[in-house]
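Incident log, support desk, overnight shift.

02:14 A customer reports that sequence design results differ from what the structure should imply. Their input is reproduced verbatim below. On-call engineer (initials T.W.) acknowledged and began investigating.
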């Protein structure tokens, strides 16, 4: 029984983003040099309207509201940072997420929306999408078209690079957490 992982709700995504920002702030306090944006009142208002069913985002709004930074450009080595600056908008689909190089050269991600969460996908039946490989391919084709219309460029050659950058950044965060835990242990 192999269940698909559930996509986090908008509220859960805000909590995840806030915890990532908290971890990033702690790294900054330890000398790391990068910044992460904040969830402003406009974003929170749109999320409330979305939850109340008063607003359905388009794919561009969906990505902007749920974008998280997987690795800031300041954490990249020089060669990768240069490559990312030339690859703004390049993306892959990985782990039910869109991974992409944002306008600042950061490696970012946003969850792929369920059909009911983005107006353009409301013609898809969510059950059929989960159970039909043909429907899944149609959905991915339509998603790729919408992203291309927003000036994204699909680039499956970046899979290895994105994975390596994300893994290396996660390892740095884990090491910083271990150091912090070791330094705070006083028994």
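02:41 Re-run completed on a clean worker. Output:
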């Amino acid at each position: 029984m192999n269940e698909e992982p559930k996509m986090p709700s908008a509220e859960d995504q805000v909590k995840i983003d806030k915890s990532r920002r908290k971890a990033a702030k702690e790294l900054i306090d330890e000398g790391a040099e990068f910044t992460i944006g904040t969830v402003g009142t406009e974003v929170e208002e749109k999320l409330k309207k979305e939850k109340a069913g008063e607003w359905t985002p388009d794919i561009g709004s969906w990505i902007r509201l749920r974008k998280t930074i997987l690795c800031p450009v300041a954490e990249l080595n020089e060669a990768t940072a240069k490559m990312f600056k030339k690859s703004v908008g390049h993306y892959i689909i990985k782990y039910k997420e869109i991974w992409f190089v944002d306008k600042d050269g950061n490696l970012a991600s946003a969850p792929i929306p369920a059909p009911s969460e983005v107006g353009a996908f409301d013609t898809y039946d969510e059950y059929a999408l989960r159970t039909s490989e043909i429907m899944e391919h149609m959905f991915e084709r339509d998603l790729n078209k919408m992203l291309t219309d927003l000036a994204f460029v699909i680039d499956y050659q970046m899979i290895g690079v994105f994975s390596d950058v994300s893994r290396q950044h996660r390892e740095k965060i884990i090491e910083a957490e271990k150091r912090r835990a070791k330094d705070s242990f006083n028994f």
